[in-house]
Design a protein that fits this description.
Elements: H1 9-29, H2 43-60, H3 67-88, H4 94-119, H5 124-145, E1 153-163, H6 167-175, H7 182-185, H8 189-192, E2 198-203, E3 211-216, E4 221-230, E5 234-241, E6 262-273, E7 279-289, H9 294-329
Antiparallel strand pairs: 1-7, 2-3, 3-4, 4-5, 5-6, 6-7
Helix pairs in contact: 1-2, 1-3, 2-3, 2-4, 2-5, 3-4, 4-5, 6-9
Protein name: SRPBCC family protein
InterPro entries: START-like_dom_sf
Keywords: Membrane, Transmembrane, Transmembrane helix
Length: about 325
């Protein structure tokens, strides 16, 4: 018995053709020729390549199949196979695959639907021209897109938590953060997709000019220079990644902190009175996002930063309240 039964040959050919287009796009846009234009973060790759994948898959799927299969299930199979190959052959890391998967699925369906709408009741020659146009368009437009400037978006992510402890206790737990154990943080999706967990934050000396070293797992370290010091009220600092300590395998190129596409610029703690013996602690950070698809990419960066900040605040809350309870029992 052959590996694929004869009646499934047409489906295998359709998926293979769509996969070939996607892989070709991955290697072309990942080459040095398009690096300055944004490479794999160019719109021609993120939007037009999956549209071409969907159109090609729909084109080679037998015409007697339902439109639902040609427009939805066929492209879905092709996208999932492409993402699997990207992970299997280490073309992309789990973080990037997770980020692009919804975008690839949606635009592949769009490409298949447009192809079917355009070629409805058209002769075979017209269908061939149409699918060829879908397949070639990303590569033809890429040199033009590469000449465009990449927009920059400055974003702010804020988290707040209520702590059953006075500001004096909370202050001591934010200026320095002793080592954090994995069980202290609890589970989070950001761990599963490969982001390192926070470990600790040290402080060279108190006051403006003090240097905090915020360390994360796998050698990730950020140098945080204090430029606003208001005891029991506000602590603010600039953030620079210590690239000398971060192994090149920790982050994918497209999500490297301090890289051309993303950077964390500042962090601020604010302590607000919330009643007798209670403090509202606010942590917000400012980031730079420089991609051609900032609104979409920003959804992911905001989520990741919010999760990191939320977990840090939860650790601080637990430690502050434990300290307060120990003090009250004395």
């Amino acid at each position: 018995m052959s590996f694929i039964e004869r009646r499934y040959y047409h489906y295998a050919i359709a998926v293979a053709a769509g996969l070939l287009v996607a892989l070709l796009g991955r290697f072309v846009f990942g080459s040095t020729g398009f690096a300055n234009g944004g490479g794999l973060l160019m719109l021609c790759f993120l939007l037009l390549i999956p549209m071409a994948l969907g159109a090609v898959t729909a084109h080679f799927t037998p015409g007697y199949m339902s439109r639902t299969w040609r427009a939805v299930w066929g492209p879905l199979c092709t996208v999932l196979l492409f993402l699997f190959c990207a992970l299997l052959f280490h073309l992309e890391g789990m973080i990037c695959v997770l980020i692009i998967s919804p975008l690839f699925l949606f635009t592949s369906w769009l490409g298949a639907i447009l192809y079917l709408a355009i070629t409805n009741d058209k002769p075979d020659k017209n269908r061939t021209y149409t699918v060829a146009a879908f397949a070639l368009l990303p590569f033809l437009l890429a040199p033009l897109e590469a000449q465009l400037n990449t927009p920059t978006d400055n974003r702010r992510v804020e988290n707040t938590i209520l702590i059953q402890a006075p500001a004096a206790v909370v202050w001591q737990h934010i200026i320095r953060v002793p080592p954090i154990q994995a069980q202290d943080l609890g589970p989070s999706l950001v761990d599963k997709i490969g982001f390192p967990r926070p470990v600790e934050a040290t402080l060279s000396h108190e006051g403006v000019g003090g240097v905090r070293r915020a360390t994360f797992e796998r050698g990730v370290e950020f140098i945080e220079t204090v430029d606003l010091w208001e005891p029991q009220r506000r602590l603010s600092f600039s953030i620079v990644p210590n690239t000398a300590t971060i192994p090149p395998t920790t982050f994918d190129e497209h999500v490297t902190v301090g890289g051309r596409f993303f950077d964390v610029l500042r962090g601020t703690y604010e302590l607000q009175p919330a009643g007798p013996g209670r403090t509202r602690l606010v942590l917000y950070s400012q980031q730079r996002l420089s991609t051609r698809l900032n609104p979409y990419a920003g959804l992911w960066t905001d989520y990741v930063m919010s999760e990191i900040q939320r977990r840090i605040l939860e650790v601080i809350k637990q430690r502050c309240e434990n300290t307060q309870q120990s003090t009250a029992r004395r």
